[in-house]
Amino acid sequence: MNIISLFSGAGGLDLGFENQGFNIIWANEYDKSIWDTYRYNHKDTFLDTRSICDINSDEIPSQIRGIIGGPPCQSWSVAGCMRGIDDPRGKLFYDYLRILQDKQPYFFVAENVPGILSRRNHDAFKKIIREFENCGYNVCFSLLNTSDYGVPQDRKRVIIIGYRKDLGIVFDFNNLRKSRNTCSLYDAIYDLPEPLAALSKNKSNYDTGEFLNNEYFIGDFSSIFMSRNRIRNWDQPSFTIQASGRQAPIFPGSDPMIKIEKDKWEFSGDNYRRLSVRECARIQTFS
């Protein structure tokens, strides 16, 4: 079944759909730092690297059954000051809607951060759902946690799914089957060898042996990072893996963090490090 991908990033969502038998024939990603990674891992997909704002719908393949993708989430997140639809990145939702309206595939899947459901963004989110419906789709959404579905990570995301109204289908989130057991950090990364410290904050070790990218980011920790506990035990899922290596959670074998006062934590010893790039990839269920 042919589908297209918008705001594709490195292609994680695309990989999930490919593993379920979908064929992604066209994708769009504007961030040039991601292009090589996407192309290397999705060799049969044409990657359009222009801004989505500059792409006309008639330049996108028409023989498709679905559209997937998550418009940039920074403008809806707490860390991004929750500017929502007032942020230029938040407005990119309208380009998703524009292409959906013009292509009219059987279904679409969009995802975003929990902040899109905040009280501050309530009216904007309702408007977005209404616009999806106006494109001709039966729309539903739910806040899901990936740890409920076999991922060793607490990662909450709002999933929006729509089926074209003439198909008479409404997606039912109640039919999703949760995993019986929570996948833990032990399950995900315990077999990996001890990683190397990066050569510097901005320079990697390129030869780390059998496991590529088996190194961790070094450098200072921000006051925001130190405002709460960042260590999970081996028998727990990881905290959310963020985009920045500097914000990676602390390795579960590290000395515990202790609370000093409100919004201020410290390490209880000298044995601690961030999770490595490879550990973060495993936790996100990349092979």
TrEMBL record:
Could you identify this protein by its name? DNA (cytosine-5-)-methyltransferase
Known CDD domains for this protein?
Cyt_C5_DNA_methylase (cd00315)
- Its EC number is 2.1.1.37
Taxonomic classification: Archaea, Methanobacteriati, Methanobacteriota, Methanomada group, Methanobacteria
Query: Which organism does this record belong to?
Result: Methanosphaera cuniculi
Q: Which GO terms describe its biological process?
A: methylation; negative regulation of gene expression via chromosomal CpG island methylation
Example GO molecular function: DNA (cytosine-5-)-methyltransferase activity
Q: Which family does it belong to?
A: Belongs to the class I-like SAM-binding methyltransferase superfamily. C5-methyltransferase family.
Is this entry keyworded Isomerase? Answer: no
User: Which keywords appear in this protein's UniProt record, sorted alphabetically?
Assistant: Methyltransferase, S-adenosyl-L-methionine, Transferase
Write the gene name. haeIIIM
Q: Which residues are named in the active-site annotation?
A: C73
**Highest taxon listed in the record's lineage:** Archaea
Q: Which PANTHER family has this protein been placed in?
A: CYTOSINE-SPECIFIC METHYLTRANSFERASE, DNA (CYTOSINE-5)-METHYLTRANSFERASE 1
